[in-house]
Amino acid sequence: MKRRSGVTKPSGFLAGGLACGVKDGKIKDLALIVSDRPAKAWGVFTTNHVKGAPVIVSKDHMRHRFARGIVVNSGNANTANTLTKKAEEGAARMAKAVANNLDCPSRSIFVASTGAIGKPLPIAKIERGIAKLYREISVTGGGDAAEAIMTTDLVKKESHASFNVGKKKVTVGGCGKGSGMIHPNMATMLAFITTDAAVSRAVLKDIVKRASADSFNKITVDGDTSTSDMFIALANGASGATAINAPRGKGYAQLLDKVTGVCVDLAKKIVRDGEGATKFVTVNVTGARSEADARIIAKSIAVSNLVKTAMFGQDANWGRILCAAGYAGPLIDPYKVTVKISGATAYRRGKLVDGFEKRVKPKMMKKNITISLDLGAGKSASQVWTCDMSYDYIRINTDYTT
Amino acid sequence: MKRRSGVTKPSGFLAGGLACGVKDGKIKDLALIVSDRPAKAWGVFTTNHVKGAPVIVSKDHMRHRFARGIVVNSGNANTANTLTKKAEEGAARMAKAVANNLDCPSRSIFVASTGAIGKPLPIAKIERGIAKLYREISVTGGGDAAEAIMTTDLVKKESHASFNVGKKKVTVGGCGKGSGMIHPNMATMLAFITTDAAVSRAVLKDIVKRASADSFNKITVDGDTSTSDMFIALANGASGATAINAPRGKGYAQLLDKVTGVCVDLAKKIVRDGEGATKFVTVNVTGARSEADARIIAKSIAVSNLVKTAMFGQDANWGRILCAAGYAGPLIDPYKVTVKISGATAYRRGKLVDGFEKRVKPKMMKKNITISLDLGAGKSASQVWTCDMSYDYIRINTDYTT
Predict the structure, then answer these.
(1) Of B84, B315, B333, the CB nearest to A402
(2) B194 and B314: one domain?
(3) What range does the domain containing A147 cover?
(4) Do A259 and A307 have their domain in common?
(5) Cβ of residue A399 closer than 8 Å to a chain B Cβ
(6) pLDDT for the residue B291
(7) Do B234 and B287 fall within a single domain?
(8) Distance from the A84 Cα atom to the nearest Cα atom in chain B, whole angstroms
(9) What CATH number is associated with residue B264?
């Protein structure tokens, strides 16, 4: 029997997923998430100048006061595949097909697409799929929706968390996808969060921005920022809990904490499922002059192919780590830097540490590796999560479109 | 019988290379290039904030009026391996060992090191090697020097060109190394140019800057900017040709042209020998608002793992190309962009071009691929050279230090 999970864990949300024929071989490729009542919504989107039509349409729809649902297809990014208006027309038709069933304005529906860039969108198949899927959505359909948004993902990604506001239980649920072309910048891959909290639009915006900065914007798989990144949160108030209308107080703090927790969980799941990944690597940069410096340096290390291939080879090549910190941009003094791998110190303030290779060797065999760099220049810090780079990364990406 | 080649093609230069024991297995690891008379010199160096000791020492020595030679070891980058002064001491001792033999100041000698970062430098072996190598250098030793600076390189890289100033023949020669950690920024990997032209220091500086901008700064293999990048030119006047003392006139134009030509040849050889490379990829960006925009976008495409793995898979995935252009930074309008691969148009101003896949298929099997992006926004252009990314890239980099 199916259970409530992910986006259908909070009250008042229905979802589902099915195969409508965008992908070959009856693999699920269409997902629908619906709130049974008007919800507040906020989203963040890719900063790539080449934006998928769904990004353009969804950003426009976000200006509407309420949202009722999110429709997503995988297998086709609906990006750069035709003249502007035709691609947007396709995305708009997806929203309209859902809105017709819900008897709400098209602008209450968000649209997302993920898959190959530059392929014509089979909109008729999708419209037929939406008509069918609308009849199938349910409170246990979160898992099917999570499955239907996958592309090169090997596992579906869901998460949830709860807390109490007074005596009312408030739940946050979510699903996400992403495995390659993962280097979010001010936005993310595809991730959708639902909550039955009652919250004002302004507070939801605040929470979405903070939560994505602390989760999706901290991950990188391959340094490529997608054209289709989108993270949307829907809050429908179905918990019956007191409304959170200002960014302060216990209810706000708890909602921020739980939404962030769900986002971090989804973000880490995306990294663990990174194309070809065999290791989960945490990069901690401390002792920086500013948080921005720390973040830039941590991302430079996390995205370096040479660091990532060394991790795959279980080679504690800290020289490549220091090198990637050095070319990141912010000025660093290598003679104040300390480099550790999974707790073993390789280099302390300009000096090699004896016995490092012996101490680090068993730690490199583990699935989780932590790279720590203290810059010795200030008190700011940042953290980034990434994966290693293996033969399978090459295999997966050598023949994706054909 | 050995012939004059590379850095010993111009008159008045001697060179050689031997195995001194930095690398295991009697593989050549020490190179020496000497001018038989004081030469003018100029160099450009890595912009990485973590600099190898040889970079620090060579930048200091460049302030000296004349240069007599360049000593290089491979197998150890002499970077971040001990306290500042000790590492610099090692580099200074390499210069001094050469200077003692040449009876010139240490500051007349440039030092370069390439190899793993963070390993103690076996300076005593290198000093013994220099004493031996000094007795072996000759006018046919350019090839041995080119071989001795290799690390993961599969082939040695030499080039030369000649022209006449009046009735005197002037020759430019060079050697270079590089295969991974190649993403030069204002500087380059290791490359050394010699010429018997007579030229003022100011003109040589001008030529080095222009030639490196048009060659080494246009290549990328893996996006990692090394700690040890260095490009040095020596001009000793041994041709007897009239001196070139101003950046104008036919002699200047020819010298700039030939030095640039030798640098471009070495740069392309480095890309062709990129770690695991099976293809040589030229990225042309045209129609940009500025040359800087064009260069940033071309580099973003050239360094994208998703573009590079597609090229390895002979997959004409132009969507990834457009995507990488979109996140590069400069504002682009995808509906004004045209994308071609090896002459076949995939996408023209927002519209798919019919028959692209059929037309491009035979072109993807070739060793040389050209990616062309016209932004439709202006008249500026830039070009970058890169290689594809294969299984061998992973193999080579998974176990380098141990």
Answers:
(1) B315
(2) no
(3) 6-271
(4) no
(5) yes
(6) 92
(7) no
(8) 7
(9) 3.60.70.12
Task: Count Cβ atoms below 10 Å from residue B39 Cβ, excluding itself.
Answer: 25
Report the distance separating Cα A388 and Cα A282, nearest Å: 11
Strand segments, DSSP code E, in B120-271 are: 157-165, 168-177, 190-195, 219-220, 230-235
Closest-CA distance, A105 to chain B, in angstroms, reads 29
User: How far is residue A51's CA from residue A238's CA, in Å, rounded to a whole number?
Assistant: 33
A231, containing H or E segment = strand A230-235
CB contact under 8 A, A224 and B305: yes
CB within 8 Å of chain A, chain B residues 242-301: none
Residue B1 lies in a domain: no
Q: Does A19 touch chain B (CB under 8 A)?
A: no
Residues A209, A62 share a domain: yes
Domain count, chain B: 2
CB contact under 8 A, B402 and A315: yes
Distance CA(B135)–CA(B164), nearest Å, equals: 33
The CATH number of residue B308's host domain is 3.10.20.340
Q: Are residues A347 and A218 in the same domain?
A: no
pTM of the model: 0.83
B80 closest CB neighbour out of A80, A222, A334: A334
> Are A58 and A114 in a shared domain?
yes
Catalytic residues of B: 188
In A, residues 325-354, which contact B (CB 8 Å cutoff)? 325-327, 331-335, 346-347, 350-352
Q: Are residues B258 and B317 in the same domain?
A: no
Residues B192 and B242 in one domain: yes
Among residues A271, A297, A319, the one where a domain terminates is A271
Instruction: Using the structure block, give the residue that is written with the tokens 């994505």.
Output: A212
Residue B74: strand pairing partners? B114
Angle CA B294–B300–B304, to nearest 5: 150
pLDDT tens series, chain B, 402 aa: 789 999 999 999 999 999 999 999 899 999 999 999 999 999 988 888 888 899 999 999 999 999 999 999 999 989 877 655 678 889 999 999 999 999 999 999 999 999 888 888 999 999 999 999 999 999 999 999 999 999 888 889 999 999 998 899 999 999 998 876 666 543 347 889 899 999 999 999 999 999 988 888 888 776 777 777 888 899 999 999 999 999 999 999 999 999 999 999 998 988 888 888 999 999 999 999 999 999 999 999 998 998 999 999 999 999 889 989 988 889 999 889 999 999 999 999 988 899 999 999 999 999 999 999 999 999 999 999 999 999 988 888 886 554
Question: Which B-chain residues 162-221 have CB contacts (< 8 A) with chain A?
Answer: 180-181, 183, 185
Report how far residue B118's alpha carbon sits from residue B61's, in angstroms, rounded to the nearest whole number.
23
